[in-house]
Specification:
Length: 387
């Protein structure tokens, strides 16, 4: 988040010190489209240490020339003009050269609509015909698309993302290159893939973007999501990132379990995926075992997959009114169970608790002391005598 006022202040300050500076990239594009830019990237002839001297800042990407400037509570990425060296991992260039001209800096950027510069008076400098492509609503690489995609395969997915965000079409040569170079997607790190796919799914024209991804067969080069993409295209029904990844777990747990989600998210997608099977009727027991969030996600995923309706408020009500929410809330303590049976602590206690909880959840028992003691004596103490 940021404001154009701040961005202009940064430009003025850099200029007053004899440097060049412009707003560049998505902010210029969005500004010209009449959309409110979210983030402001600036490009400057000043070297990173010179930028740092002039502003309150953090050296977030010093090696790549990026300094994050702080203004009020907002941050602005200020990057020194650069050209990128080759990239071993198609991720970060192995090294960058600080460039001497802003034109060089523009030429390393991905698409023409992301390559325009704007000064503090709103004056546009455009070396790549970005304005024409913006008018034509076209996504086109800066320079030779095959070369640009081989430098960084993420750009293939970025083209899809901008299509989803802006509802633009992809220029023919760029489109052909995306199709032919699809195999390069296997070189992307899973972290980058997760971020970019999530961005695509969150766009306004998600279905259009996913349709292109499908038509270009990109999904065959992203292990784990093939069937999910097929299903979305078939259903023509929009999806959220969480439901997307749960559906993917549902179809292809084996490949999805290799993805680098946090353990918490893995557990969530895995469990919700398991619960999403058509014949699973989501119950009080599920709410008790996995919590409201996971069960709601499962309900949404079931609804997506089987076109059933779901009543979120019913699940919420059910959760609110669970007769017990955790085994520690049982009105009979494990020490009491041990005393009554003269047995030592062990796995049997958990079994008894699970049994009691199950009966409480199905309203066969009340979570009340006398009732639990009676039930315990009846079921477990008497049984012991016959052992
Ligand atoms: P968004 O609205 O999603 O923020 P953006 O165009 O600002 O879109 P960012 O990912 O914020 O995209 O990147 C800022 C700018 O940096 C881009 O506009 C583009 O000029 C350049 N850029 C970003 N990623 C790449 C890349 N992988 N290859 C080349 N240039 C890139
Ligand atoms: Mg941006």
């Amino acid at each position: 988040m940021g404001t154009i006022n701040h961005a202009n202040q940064i430009i003025k300050k850099l200029k007053s010190e004899g440097h060049e500076a412009y707003i560049v990239g998505g902010a210029v594009r969005d500004h010209l489209l009449g959309l409110k830019p979210v983030d402001f990237d600036l490009t400057t002839s000043a070297k990173p240490n010179q930028v740092m001297k002039l502003f309150e800042s953090r050296a977030t990407g010093f090696k790549y020339g990026t300094i994050t400037v702080l203004m009020d509570q907002f941050t602005y990425e200020v990057t020194t003009y650069r050209t990128d060296g080759p990239s071993e991992d198609q991720r970060h260039p192995d090294y960058v050269f600080f460039g001497t001209s802003v034109e060089e800096d523009v030429l390393r950027r991905d698409f023409t609509i992301n390559g325009m510069l704007m000064d503090e008076h709103g004056e546009i400098t455009d070396y790549v015909s970005g304005q024409d492509d913006l008018k034509q609503k076209t996504i086109k690489t800066i320079g030779e698309p095959y070369l640009r995609f081989s430098e960084d395969a993420l750009r293939i997915l970025r083209a899809i993302y901008f299509q989803g965000k802006l509802n633009f079409s992809i220029e023919d040569e760029t489109y052909e290159a995306m199709k032919k170079m699809a195999g390069l997607l296997t070189t992307l790190s899973n972290e980058r893939l997760i971020v970019e796919l999530s961005k695509i799914i969150k766009t306004d024209y998600q279905l259009k973007a996913i349709d292109t991804l499908h038509t270009l067969n990109l999904h065959h080069h992203i292990k784990g999501i093939e069937e999910t993409i097929d299903v979305i295209v078939k259903k023509k029904k929009s999806i959220t990132p969480e439901t997307f990844f749960t559906v993917a777990y549902y179809f292809d747990e084996k490949n999805m379990s290799q993805w680098t989600f946090s353990n918490k998210l893995k557990h969530k997608f895995h469990t919700a995926g398991q619960l999403s099977k058509e014949n699973v009727k989501l119950s009080a027991q599920h709410l008790f075992d996995y919590g409201l969030e996971i069960v709601k996600l499962a309900a949404r995923t079931q609804a997506y997959l089987f076109d059933t309706s779901y009543a979120m408020n019913k699940l919420e009500y059910m959760y609110e009114h669970l007769p017990i929410k955790s085994a520690v809330d049982l009105k009979m303590k494990s020490t009491e169970m041990m005393a009554l049976t003269h047995k030592k602590a062990g796995a049997w206690i958990k079994d008894v608790q699970d049994d009691m909880v199950k009966k409480i959840l199905s309203h066969e028992l009340k979570n009340e002391r006398t009732e639990l003691f009676l039930y315990f004596r009846e079921t477990y103490v008497k049984g012991l005598k016959h052992e």
